[in-house]
Amino acid sequence: MNELSKRNNKCDQIVMELSIDIIIEILHRFPSKSLARFKSVSRSWALHVSNCRSQRFSTRTIGFFYQPMRTHSQIHFLFTSSENKVKGNFDESVNFLKGCHLHLIASSIGFLLCCEQEIYQRHYYVYNPATRQYFSLPQVPTGTKNVELAGINVQTCAKYVAIGFNCKLDDINNDVISFTVVRYQIPAESTVTIESFSSQSNVWTEITFALQIPLVFYRCHYHPSKWLKSGGAIDGVFYWLDFSSRINVYDSVNMCFWSPDIPDGLTLSILEISWCIRGDPMLCKFVSRT
Amino acid sequence: MVKLKSNDDKEFEVEEAAVIQSEMIKNMIEDGCATSVIPLPNIDSKTLIKVIEYLNKHINMGKAAETGEEDDLKEFDEQFVNMGWEELFDVIMAANYLNIHELMELCCQSAADRLKNKSVRAVREMLKITNDLTEEEEQEIINDAPWAFEGPEIDDTVN
What we know:
Chain A: InterPro entries: Beta-prop_At3g26010-like (IPR056592), F-box-like_dom_sf (IPR036047), F-box_dom (IPR001810), SCF_F-box_component (IPR050796). Chain A: It holds the Pfam family b-prop_At3g26010-like. By secondary structure, chain A is α+β, with helices and mostly antiparallel strands. Chain A has helices spanning 2-17, 20-27, 32-38, 43-60, 224-227, 281-284, and strands at residues 63-67, 76-79, 103-108, 111-115, 124-128, 133-136, 146-149, 152-155, 161-171, 176-185, 191-198, 203-210, 230-234, 237-242, 246-251, 256-258, 268-270, 276-278, 287-289. In chain A, the strands form five sheets. In chain A, strands 12-11-10-9-13-14-15-16 form an eight-stranded mixed β-sheet, with no helix packed on it. Chain A has a four-stranded antiparallel β-sheet with strand order 3-4-5-6, with no helix packed on it. Chain B is mainly alpha-helical. In chain B, a hairpin with a 5-residue loop joins strand 1 and strand 2 (11-14). At the A-B interface, helix 1, helix 2, helix 3 and helix 4 of A face helix 6, helix 7, helix 8 and helix 9 of B.
């Protein structure tokens, strides 16, 4: 008994001495889910968790790239935090191909996917605006489908595509990344051809899937390319929300494409989550459907 | 050699190259305040032995990268933090007091790893924190992010 109470005393003492600095050090190392839960530990934890989360947001997000939707519009950067200006020669206007107009297509962990064309995208670049290094992808091979363009029959690639772009940091000190780009033509018909590029293999590969449920795309007078630019990626699985309230999924690891059923009554909303946001307000705000 | 004295009056001799990983002691030496024994009133001998073990192992950390001993050091670190919960906190507090950045980093990460999947109840118990939120306030936090309170990884045990 004596031993036990002595132990408890010691334990209480330890924790009393645990200064708030140390608690904050530990909080900074929790994943987001744990932080959200531990807000309910006590009043002081609620306060420190809130500070920790806002710090995380402001240190990790310094702003975003935007580009008005008119052709050949300049790309700009908007700093949303004044304290975290990027060191060195940060390229705010994405001008690595001197004078050549580029379109922002997608972004992932601070790297940009750009393309010279907006429709019939073929030649992509991956760009690090912080170091001004870029990588030019091999051109997307032309498809077998013949399309009449300006009266001439040409072999061409997809006109409008849904893009997924995912970067992984392999070496944090030297900015070594590997990345995957996947895309499919929109609107899709009864088959979907996924074209994917991996920096590890350095080639484009093409896989065709027959769809059990044809994808129906939301009909609107806007250009389809304005609506479905890029998808999000989690652990090598790409997700696109289409406007028929369906999520289209491509698993680049197991190489399958499908549309999961959405439970009745679920509201889907889309927010352009990536770092580069197109200048059109339609893409910057929430679009919800019930 | 630098002499350190724990709060239970035990003295330890440590090489200067090892001990200057502590910012606090480094400053004392630079200011000429470390001529005899440095008393450490906040640290007991058991904890101080652990800290010195760490300092001696990490003495040539810069060299380790060149000689390919990084893996060895990583393994040592993994073994090092494999200690009891209370012991870990003693080391964290010592590292904080002595201002040993790398050790602080290592131990706080270990503490965070042990706590991150714990339930709220388990965290309160492990850190002896009294819940001063009202029931309504607590429910409001849960309602704000119900997903944070659900999941197979959440562990209600205290250890």
